[in-house]
Amino acid sequence: MADRSTAGRQATGRLAARQLIRGLAAALCATFAAALVAGCASAVRGTGDLGVVVERAAGRLQIVETTGMTRLATVEGLGDLSHASVVFSRDARYAYVFGRDGGLTRVDLLSARITHRVLQAGNSIGGAISQDGRVVAAQNYAPGGIRLFDAQSLEPLAELPAIGNDGRRSKVVGLADLPGRRFAASLFESGEIWIIDASDPRQPQVTRLPAGREPYDGLVTPDGRWYLAGLFGEDGLALVDLWQAPLQSHRVLSGYGRGSAPLPVYKMPHLRGWAMAQGRAWLPAIGRHEVLVADPANGWQQAARVALAGQPVFAMARPDGHQVWVNFAFPQQRHGAGDRHRHAPGGAHAAPLPQRAAYGVHTQGRGSVAVLPRRQPCRGLRHRQPGAHCHAARRQPQRHLLHRARATVRHVRAPCTMN
Question: Distance (Å, rounded) from C-alpha 101 to C-alpha 119?
């Protein structure tokens, strides 16, 4: 009897111990789960105030937040970013970085890591993403053409060699997303504008339109109606009304340099280097020290000219459209005072500016408001497309149902060399 009693007591003790261990384990798991949930809850954040800064020389991407103005993380391994551009997914979580070496990289801004990367060309100059966020398009110099990719996996979907009606392969410039799953682009050597319907991204359909001599850049107006391509080989621009059927192109601002000898062009105005502000287009004039102002409501006729101290490269509108910021290439190297000049609406006299400076112009009075010399910190300067040694981009919510907003700079505290 004694042996059986002892065994029973031992069994009961072991059972109690197991129950105690189970209870402690359950309590510990519950505590850990609660801490984990609390930690996750504190780590959850939106993407509305996130942005990226491209470190061109280092080939890195900084992820920043613009509420507290801090750097959150650095992402490396992006290749040659000497002429990088960035577009964003519809939910603003992913940045698609186009490198000059043909690299296309998908970066998760929340986890600060590269999710996918492909080397899709030998020399690339930028890209776009469709409005539904499903197709990413890359425009290439070498080999000249456009390639379409799945936005989730970067799986190649289609390739469009940029061979014009003249049989030549061309560099592709001015790629932009259009309402619907469409894109527009220009062929430099062949002098064409392509409207690409990517409803079936594996079999895109191309509408070819004449542009003129050497279209070098292009933009789509914020309402998604007009595609405008600048011409390097002649004075004027090519315009396509995207609401018109069938699509046609025609010339505007023809001969804007008539009567004066063209100047050497020291720096080609860059992709997206134009601005729409106060309902008008502000366009760098090729080979001239001027910004042209065109009025879409009046048949894209010239509304004004703003004289500058050098050849404009970028003309970028402040998000509220109150000012347009212009920067310059060579040869202007003198420093000038006299910020806050006021001038007549028909033009402006600009004081000498530092080499490659930025210059602010009122969109109503068309007078200068500030001068930003080379390598001066660029906090407060906002523009819509890469162009500085450290350039930044931030997603904006959609401004309307038809056309996605472009990325803007948001007060990133980093010294920049305007390019």
Answer: 8
For residues 402 and 164, give the distance between their C-alpha atoms in angstroms, rounded to a whole number: 29
Q: Detail the DSSP E strand segments found in 38-134.
A: 50-55, 60-65, 70-75, 85-88, 94-98, 103-108, 113-119, 123-129
Q: Which residues, 6 or more positions from 197, have their beta carbon under 8 angstroms from its beta carbon?
A: 180, 181, 182, 204, 205, 206, 207
pLDDT digits (tens, 9 = 90+) for 213-272: 999 889 898 889 999 998 888 888 999 999 999 999 999 988 887 657 777 777 776 646
Q: Tell me: the pLDDT tens digits for 66-123?
A: 999 999 999 999 999 998 999 999 999 999 999 999 999 999 999 999 999 999 999 9
- Which of 312, 239, 223, 316 minimizes the C-alpha distance to 272? 316
C-alpha to C-alpha distance for 250 and 111, rounded to whole angstroms: 47
Radius of gyration of the chain (CA): 27
- Are residues 354 and 374 in contact, defined by beta-carbon separation less than 8 angstroms? yes
Q: The pTM is what?
A: 0.72
pLDDT one-digit tens code per residue, 112-160 = 999 999 999 999 989 999 999 999 999 999 999 999 999 999 999 999 9
